Amino acid sequence: SQTIHQWPATLVQPVGSPLSLECTVEGTSNPNLYWYRQAAGRGLQLLFYSVGIGQISSEVPQNLSASRPQDRQFILSSKKLLLSDSGFYLCAWNPGGANNSPLHFGNGTRLTVT
Amino acid sequence: AQSVTQLDSQVPVFEEAPVELRCNYSSSVSVYLFWYVQYPNQGLQLLLKYLSGSTLVKGINGFEAEFNKSQTSFHLRKPSVHISDTAEYFCAVSDRGYQKVTFGTGTKLQVIP
Predict the structure, then answer these.
(1) Which one, of B71, B40, B38, lies nearest residue B55 by Cα?
(2) What is the pLDDT of residues B6-62, one digit of tens each?
(3) Rounded to an integer, what distance in angstroms lies between the CA atom of residue B97 and that of residue A30?
(4) Which residue in A24, A41, A80, B68 is a FRET match for B10, CA 20 to 30 A apart?
(5) Of A41, A59, A102, the CB nearest to B46
(6) How far is B45 from chain A (nearest CA, A)?
(7) In this complex, do A110 and B41 lie within 8 Å of one another by their Cβ atoms?
(8) A-chain residue closest to B108, CA distance
(9) How far is CA B72 from CA A96, B22, B66, in A?
(10) Residue B39 contacts A, CB cutoff 8 Å
(11) Do residues A24 and A5 lie in contact, with contact meaning Cβ atoms separated by under 8 Å?
């Protein structure tokens, strides 16, 4: 069966520090991968999605970036965190080429920038 | 472009009472529609989905939703709620032919004992 792993579960980082959040999917190949951010009262904001290795689409211009170095690995990064980067970050996947397939979410990372 | 509007940010309801959570969408093309549930500090889980066919779809935990194309709505209903239904509910839409899924801002359902 397919599983998605996301870590860390919680993270407290000072302003200006770098960020790296990792997400991996097991039990499937060539998945579509997504990064969402959830801020209070604002729902889920799509940050990045990827349909293949090295293929990243950015939805919102900001100081975050994403990379997909391997088929089932998706990394969210920042060189310098801002206070506004605080939030709940969710990784998700669905089968490649199947745009009617629901998303499967990880358990999220609670990021607090201080 | 597609968008989703969830009109109610919070819905309090007494245990065993019925509930309806509203969702309206806008899109220039045909869409797929989803409802997800999120329990505190967890990811989202799929409740139900509409892809095609019957406009009334049934999901897990006794929830159902009805797709109304003329009103561009996909409201979620449950005839009798339980304490365990307390959670945040998200409506989502994806345009056919695209990989991107757009979510609403969520509705917090609070079931009162």
Answers:
(1) B71
(2) 999 999 999 999 999 999 999 877 889 999 999 988 889 999 999 888 899 999 999
(3) 17
(4) B68
(5) A102
(6) 7
(7) yes
(8) A41
(9) 28, 11, 10
(10) no
(11) yes
